[in-house]
Amino acid sequence: MKVWYQKIITIEPILKELNEMDLSEEERAHLSELLDSSLHHAILDEILSNLNEEDKKLFLKMLHTDSDNEKLVEFLNEKIDHIDDRVKKVADDLVKEMHSEVREAKKAK
Predict the structure, then answer these.
(1) Residue 16: which region, alpha, beta or left (left: phi > 0; alpha: psi -120 to 50)?
(2) Phi, psi (5° rounding) for residue 51?
(3) pTM to 2 decimals?
(4) Which of 18, 34, 47, 101 has a CA-to-CA distance to 71 between 20 and 30 Å?
(5) Treating both helix axes as pointing N-terminal to C-terminal, what angle do 25-49 and 83-108 enclose, rounded to 10 degrees?
(6) Half-sphere exposure of residue 4, counting CA atoms within 13 Å on the CB side?
């Protein structure tokens, strides 16, 4: 699923690190899916924490209908100050943490 925030986050460094590890394709795919899922949940948490109940319902409906919709981005920009910066920070922090964990796992092997 393509999601609007994919345009503003960077996960390539950790994906590169995963590709360099001695992992099976299944393990690599599983870790990649975990990364995507963790990012998605962390970003949703940041967004939902900054919306009122009515706006949460509207946001979730819009996300379910079309997660890459420009109207969704406009809606979030109207409702949450600096949403792009907030999403980028959440994603960067999580990727940095996961990158550190991947490096530790590489050392342990």
Answers:
(1) alpha
(2) -120, 150
(3) 0.85
(4) 34
(5) 150
(6) 23
Tokens 């870790």, located at residue: 31
- Interatomic CA distance for residues 107 and 109, integer angstroms: 6
Cβ atoms 3, 67 nearer than 8 A: yes
Of 71, 92, 75, 94, whose CA–CA distance to 83 is shortest?
75
Residue whose pair of structure tokens reads 């995507």 in the numeric block: 36
Total domains present in the chain: 1
Give the separation between CA 62 and CA 68, rounded to whole angstroms: 9
Residue 11's domain comprises 4-108
Per-residue model confidence as pLDDT tens digits over 80-97: 999 999 999 999 999 888
